[in-house]
UniProtKB/TrEMBL annotation:
PANTHER family on file: ABC TRANSPORTER PERMEASE PROTEIN, OLIGOPEPTIDE TRANSPORT SYSTEM PERMEASE PROTEIN APPC
Name of this protein: ABC transporter permease
Metal-binding is among the record's keywords: no
Localization, UniProt: Cell membrane
Gene source species: Limobrevibacterium gyesilva
Amino acid sequence: MNAVARFIDSDFLYSFRRSPVAIISALVALVCVFGAILSPWIAPHDPFDLASLSLMDSFKPPAFMADGENAYLLGTDDQGRDLLSGIMYGTRISLFVGVLAIGFALAVGITVGLVAGYMGGTVDAVLMRIADVQLTFPAILIALLVDGVVRAVLPREFHEKIEIYVLVFAIGIARWPQFARTVRGSTLVERGREYVMAAQVIGLSRARIMISHILPNVLGPVLVIATLNLGLAILDEATLSFLGVGLPPTQPSLGTLIRIGNDFLFSGEWWVTIFPGIALALMVLSINLLGDWLRDALNPRLR
């Protein structure tokens, strides 16, 4: 109870209550997250149930238009799938890919940053030059390259089974340098502190010093970067799926729905692209605005 009381009276929560942008962004993000998580139970239809789909229901307009039906509030796509249900399931897939990709990038980036910052010397120079080289290329190009290489190496019969994990790996490996450079800079500062020197004097191993002593003190800025990069990772997944190298049409992520609708945008079926695009924009914008607020809230110079 004391911890809860301290949190309620904390500057962090006070800053949140004083920021209308943060409150609205949090509400939008929560709606997206809960809608995605609860989609198997609250979605009007199951877009993965092929037995329930009918091509006769394809390209039905939204319910508010003249020929719309109340059973399909946002209309249907080219396969007769309910667009609202597709958006809910697609948001679930996009969030799943984004969270796993950022988690993977965090694991790689924190490990590399800790080792480079604490070890220094040749190890630091080699690891940071690798990160610098990768940072010269856009993350989406790295993800495209990794995705293509993995697809070429793996047998074709495994592609559909592990496609989502290949996508997670491609996006994660494209975004680790930012985390590595941030952790490395903080580690360079922390390794000269008295508590690190004391740990070295009593004979603790380098691994234990890095994990138990330095890591907890460098996580703050990393978590802020992770929040900002989550929105970018979701956009990466949508971009790859839009280009046709991400998830297949049988797994309707937001990027896949936008790609499908783009083929029919100028023939009058605008809703197949517009509504998933709005959902993607709202979700990414709310996450980015929350990340901006979190960065300012955790910055002691702005308090």
